[in-house]
Amino acid sequence: MPMNDELKVFAGCSNPGLADEICGCLDIRRSGLRISRFSNDNLSVQIEENVRERDVFVVQAFTEPASDRILELLITMDALRSASARRITAVIPYFSYGRSDKKDAPRISIAGRLIADLLRTAGADRVLTMDLHAEQVHGFFSIPVDHLTAIPIVAAHVEKTCEMANAVVVATDAGGAKRAGKFATRLRLPLAIIDKRRVSDTEVRQGHVVGDVAGKDAVVFEDEIATGSTMAETARTLAAAGARQVVAGATHGVLVGHAIDNLREAAIASFTVTNTVEVPKSKRLEKMTVLSVAPLMAEAIRRIHTGESVGALFA
Questions:
Q1: What are the helix (H) ranges across the chain?
Q2: Using one digit for the tens of pLDDT, what is the confidence trace for 178-205?
Q3: Annotated active-site residue in 103, 178, 182, 196
Q4: CATH class of 3-149+294-313
Q5: Per CATH, which fold does 151-291 belong to?
Q6: pLDDT at position 201
Q7: Burial, 300: exposed, middle or buried (Cβ in 10 Å; 0-12, 13-18, 19+)?
Q8: pTM for the whole thing?
Q9: Is 196 part of the annotated catalytic residue set?
Q10: pLDDT computed for residue 25 by the predictor
Q11: Domain locations in the chain as residue ranges
């Protein structure tokens, strides 16, 4: 059966623009899905076309309101399973519960593992996601997971727009050193690390910089920018250590709370995010660039559908 007849791509309400870009790269149209609410606020999902024995992909990022987005995805996959879809892949560009990867306080849930179990129970046969906050979350799933990274996309943009001769990549803390190290390797740059202590979900305190940043352009790469407090504090720490300027990048531009004000006021020359999370015009600053991950995700979907190796896309 031709790919265009057998492959179906649906989208929840989180990021339909990205889903449309993915479909454009695959040269197919986005399949119809009706999401509504009953008078008692319960969600209702109806698949608007035949999916019997089809290979189905559902694009849904876990963005605000995350609980609604997750429930939309779960109900959609359950509807697809009931409609006899042959295989269901949950395409989750931003898996927000990747931050809930450990029991770091008494009597709490390791919610990342719970969400992974719920996805399988609802009907997911596999998951396609990008830049999990903690790589060990991959192990929470009992179904296949293809874990892509936007590092090559962001690094290529930084290399084209910034002077690399006198630059250094900086990890905002020891936990992000591995991720920043991959970014540094991609750009063939040295790596520095900042000593950071998280006070609360929205407040961090940073100490000294391990590595030489004096007089250099500091390139900071994170998996996500949420409130922007870490990035703003990083810029202050690097300025105090003598960095010439700060260039920032992240895969997920979550940008919640006072993020835009924090980033606007921060001593950051430019910063780059991708469209794994939809960034509305109201949040797009002049010094912000939003790159598309649609071609990468579309290629991964094509390879999953045709049974080709996806491993080459992980680097």
A1: 3-6, 16-26, 66-82, 111-122, 151-161, 177-187, 229-240, 259-265, 294-306
A2: 999 999 999 999 999 998 666 665 565 6
A3: 196
A4: alpha beta
A5: Rossmann fold (3.40.50)
A6: 58
A7: buried
A8: 0.93
A9: yes
A10: 97
A11: 3-149+294-313, 151-291
